[in-house]
Automatic annotation (TrEMBL):
GO biological process, one term: carbohydrate metabolic process
Protein name: Polysaccharide deacetylase family protein
Entry-linked InterPro entries: Glyco_hydro/deAcase_b/a-brl, NODB_dom, PgdA-like
Residues of the NodB homology domain: 16-262
An example molecular function term from Gene Ontology annotations: hydrolase activity, acting on carbon-nitrogen (but not peptide) bonds
Length: 274
């Protein structure tokens, strides 16, 4: 019988996304949401992962490492994998030149090297946003895998270069590269349903966790060696009531037969070996 893999991923954005949202208007209240993720959400999630003996993949912007080194060190010292998530969570397509985009990514690499002593091999773009230049930059900088795109739901695959999408001609997929994609989904992310933003309210909390479990159940039943990537944020899922629901979800997932909890790096390495 094939096994199912669950990959818990945490986007430790802290205050960085609030520096770019809402037309650049600085707001102490918005920034305080990121501070909650640092001071309360992250310690709570670390404790929950310890209780379940789960190693998660944390995507950490360089801005978070520079601003909150103790919190980032706590993540690293508790045995979790830390990978790249930009410098200040700025969408990569907002850079006007390749040099500016490359500089952002290189600065994030330096931050992670300072914290962990090793170079990141995995990348998750801020807001899951690629520019037409991003893949080429990632290849040049030696990244081995990405977790930002949505060309599959439960299967790793290889990102492609040289694709073309003309309005008056058929789509051309291009050629596969050596970078493995571990796909994400807005349907398996806590930010869209739970993080209040202008013009966007809340959903029934329990229904989202039920939806995540339903998605996993379908994968477990229908997909051989499926990979279930769940994205959470300390400032969102670190809230008390969501911790309870997340705890219950993890307990439910562990009740299935032939289920492993793994980091994205280990899944990507196995995909390459096979």
């Amino acid at each position: 019988m094939s096994r199912s893999t669950v990959c818990l991923t945490c986007d430790f954005d802290a205050v960085s996304p609030w520096l770019h949202l809402f037309d650049g208007q600085e707001s102490p209240t918005k920034l305080s949401r990121g501070l909650f993720g640092v001071d309360y959400g992250t310690p709570r999630l670390l404790e929950l992962f310890d209780q379940h003996d789960i190693e998660a993949t944390w995507f950490v912007p360089g801005h978070t490492i520079a601003s909150f080194p103790d919190a980032c060190e706590a993540v690293w010292s508790r045995g979790h994998d830390i990978q790249h998530h930009g410098w200040t969570h700025r969408p990569l397509s907002s850079y006007e030149t390749e040099a500016e985009e490359r500089s952002d990514i290189e600065r994030g690499i330096e931050s992670i090297e300072t914290l962990t002593g090793r170079r990141p091999i995995g990348f998750r773009s801020p807001s899951w946003d690629f520019s037409p230049r991003t893949l080429s930059i990632l290849r040049d900088l030696g990244f081995e895998w990405d977790s930002s795109q949505m060309g599959a739901d439960f299967h790793p695959y290889r990102l492609r270069t040289g694709w073309e999408a003309p309005l008056d001609q058929p789509f051309d997929r291009g050629e596969p590269t050596d970078i493995v994609e571990l796909p994400v989904s807005w349907q398996r992310d806590d930010f869209p349903p739970f993080a209040y933003r202008r013009g966007q309210g809340f959903v029934t909390e329990r229904s989202v966790f039920d939806q995540w479990l339903t998605q996993f159940e379908w994968m477990h039943e229908h997909i051989d060696d499926g990979v279930f990537v769940l994205t959470i944020h300390p400032q969102v899922s670190g809230q008390s009531h969501r911790l309870t629901n997340l705890d219950q979800l993890l307990e439910s997932l562990k009740e299935f037969s032939n289920v492993d909890f793994r980091t994205l790096s280990s899944v990507a390495a196995e995909f390459v070996d096979n």
